[in-house]
Specification:
The chain is an alpha/beta fold and 228 residues long. Helices cover 32% and strands 29% of the residues.
Length: 228
Amino acid sequence: MDAPVIRFAGVSRTYPMEGELVEALRSIDLEIMQGELMAIMGPSGSGKSTMMHIAGLLDTLSRGRYELEGEDVSSLTKNQRADIRNRRIGFIFQSFNLLARCSALENVELPMLYHRPGVAERRERALAALEAVGMADRAQHLPRQLSGGQQQRVAVARALVNRPALILADEPTGNLDTRTGREIIRLLSSLHEQGITVVLVTHDPEVGRAMRRRVFLRDGLLERDEAA
């Protein structure tokens, strides 16, 4: 049997705050398999953003073990985490995080600069990613020349360009109107249908209902895990 893309075993995260220790996550056990389409849900302060940050190697755990595609990544150095993030994880953010002075094509090329493939290869892969999200005809447009939905599609292309094992999306519809948000969810669902693992954080019940699996957190604990 294939190893899970993500495996949390007793994962906890504790932060010092005003002289006290706050447990953002408490002994989380969770497996996410290849090709899942999953939402992490819960009220504000439930720990869902902390879980996303640990899964994306943007934060470190305090206790427990985290395996990414069968590899223990619990105690890597900062540089090792950055390397894995770049090669194996794609990120989509609520605020798009596109560089204002770069074209859509240049924004999508950015993740490839870390490993420095040739200019021709970068251009080819970036154009293919834009084509996959229906934005090839906007490749030379700046972010200010694009709608919110178009900017998020460019952000999805950027997440895809390094062919990651996992895409993490943090409130990907939060800055979009309802219709455009549904278009982005359909796009993420199509990636899932291609076998890509997609995990998103959302507080929106409609977005949650569109996922194949939902994990609910409360007070740092895994409250329930359900299939749609």
